[in-house]
Automatic annotation (TrEMBL):
GO terms for biological process: anaerobic respiration. One of its GO terms (molecular function) is metal ion binding. Component of the periplasmic nitrate reductase NapAB complex composed of NapA and NapB. It comes from Marinobacter nauticus. Residues 25-49 are annotated as: Disordered. It comes from the Bacteria. Heme c 2 binds at H104, C123, C126, H127. Keywords: Electron transport, Heme, Iron, Metal-binding, Periplasm, Signal, Transport. Belongs to the NapB family. GO terms for cellular component: periplasmic space. The keyword Methyltransferase does not apply. Transmembrane segments: none annotated. This is Periplasmic nitrate reductase, electron transfer subunit. It is found in: Periplasm.
Length: 156
């Protein structure tokens, strides 16, 4: 009986120790800095709406263009796609918006369809709004034009 009481007391002491900060390791400092694994810190503020509205230069071939306007509260689901109100084949000219690329009308077998195919229907899978957000990680990415100029000069 004494042994059982001893183990019970030892277990309770260990649980009290485990609840303290001694066993709460700091979180790995990834994209969200500081805190411990058990803490819920407030999220950083959401980046602002788009900078000035203009078309951005693409950094590489086939890069999806960024969205130069706010899209908060846009409905894009299986029943309705608000983006197509301006970017569809019929509405683009009157809206002054670029029409959805012809690739969005091709299915997985490269057959051209009359409407945007399901694989390209959910715009924000690839396209993101421009923001004034600062980069979360450093990048040494070079645009394709820079790479070509460097290779022509012999830089490597």
């Amino acid at each position: 009986m004494r042994t059982l009481l001893f183990f019970l007391a030892a277990s309770l002491a260990f649980l009290a120790y485990a609840e303290s900060d001694h066993l709460s390791p700091s979180s790995p400092d990834g994209l969200r800095q500081g805190g411990t694994l058990g803490q819920d810190l407030p999220a950083p503020p959401i980046a602002g709406d788009p900078r000035e509205v203009k078309r951005e230069v693409r950094n590489y071939p086939e890069q999806p263009p960024v969205i130069p306007h706010a899209i908060r509260d846009y409905q894009v689901d299986k029943n309705f796609n608000r983006c197509l109100d301006c970017h569809s084949r019929e509405a683009a000219v009157q809206a002054g918006a670029p029409m959805v690329s012809v690739t969005h009308f091709m299915d997985r077998h490269f057959q051209v369809r009359a409407e945007v195919t399901p694989g390209r229907y959910f715009c924000t899978q690839c396209h993101v709004p421009q923001t004034d957000a600062q980069p979360l990680v450093e990048s040494d990415f070079k645009a394709v034009d820079e790479v070509i100029r460097a290779s022509n000069r012999g830089d490597r």
